[in-house]
Amino acid sequence: MSEEEKIIIGKGTWIDKLASEMIEREERLGRDTKLLKVESGLGASGIPHIGSLGDAVRAYGVKLALENLGYKSDLIAYSDDLDGLRKIPEGLPETLSEHIAKPVSLIPDPFGCHDSYGMHMSSILLDGLDKLGIKYNFIRARDTYKNGLLRDQIHTILINSEKIGNKIAELVGQEKYQKFLPYYPVCAKCNRLYTAQSYEYDQERRVVKYRCVEAEIGSKMLKGCGHEGEADISKDLGKLAWKVEFAARWHAFDIRFEAYGKDIMDSVKVNDWVSEEVLGHPPPHHVKYEMFLDKGGKKISKSAGNVVTSQKWFRYGTPKSMLLLLYKRITGARELGFEDIPALMDEYNEIEDVYFGKIKLENEAKLLKTRGLYEYTNLLNPPKTPPTHVNFRLLIELCRIFKEDRKSLVTKKLIDYGSIKNSEPHIEQLIELAGNYADDFEDEEAAKIEINSETKTALSKLVTILESDRDPEDLQNTIYNIAKENNVQPKDFFMVLYQIIINASRGPKIGPFIMDIGRKKVAQTISKHI
What we know:
47% of the residues lie in helices and 12% in strands.
């Protein structure tokens, strides 16, 4: 056995490596490994985007890897629906401004379909997870606090609040918890969270004393109502500050793995210390992931309005295309937009062909990793046989041609091209997705292709013919002859044309296909490359 083969773990992916590292750590700590719980925190303060979804999907991947390695595992999807609303997300009604700083589970649903604003946002995320086939145990912050599940952890944290406040200042330079306790009661008078600052804890009565004062919320100052009161940590609604809350949850739910985005690194650093030193519970195994960026390089954000949601994604791409995106890798920031969907759809077909042996890979490690990625993209339940493949960009081009009676006409063309033998339900679904994409997006910007000088000359001559007012008698033969006359192998010339038109190395018979798309449209596309 080679050295390379010896280090293959599980399915050979980063997910398996992470699960293996986690098991090794648990064994070093001497902890019970009968049930290994993994957690994903779900934000409930704005429209959930693919980054929020990705957190839970990747945690589920780790759960699957643990089960594949012989361990029982469970994914907890924890909705932070006691979080306060800091600002109104782009596109939501301004009437929400009266609810700034209130817990999102106490804000009425502006759409009128759920018990609260927070549950509405959580339901959008859960719908995305359901459509992806992710299985989870859903827990709400509101119920967690209401039912006293963190009561003992809150008590321990509050009696150690001075030590914690000093450590937060030392670790991350934040000094406010040297003045206030890391616990926010919900003000009994105005229902706001962050304006109610607790300053004293009576550990005998388990009560915090607080004042509702001016506080900075989302870079704006918000006046408190002036109320002074007491809140019982066992009965009254309130929540721990983020700097300590993760630790309380990890201890209460016995969490062994949780990934985090680099935007909350400081919180994780403090929570790890609180978990270990205050609660006496080793923090979970972590992995840090980069955030998704929009195509302008800005972080995809619930409040900024540049949100890529699962609901919109599934208008253009399959759940498998999203799972492929999320399981390909975890490190490195990535710019993401709906225009990435066609490439992911075709990439999924490619890794499926590798899995079923239709594409051969010489490198054994790469083969194992690609097969593993395919299995995780199918949530470790791959199909027994592959469905018929059709290049997704080919479908988009055909959908741009046929706008009426689209399914039957595109299906007929695919049969004419020899791409499929007959209509199938899954092909019809792909035509619908490609049609939505064709209707909603302009032609994609041409991908960069390396083209040598002889091929450029041949392409220029083809453009002249395509721009002519007269239809060539036999375009297929014309293209073949242009290639030969310019010392370009016809098969190489056809491949370049496929790359330019549908970003693939092969496709339907090129002459009739160009005539179907439209000669002058194809001429414009080729011109962008030369």
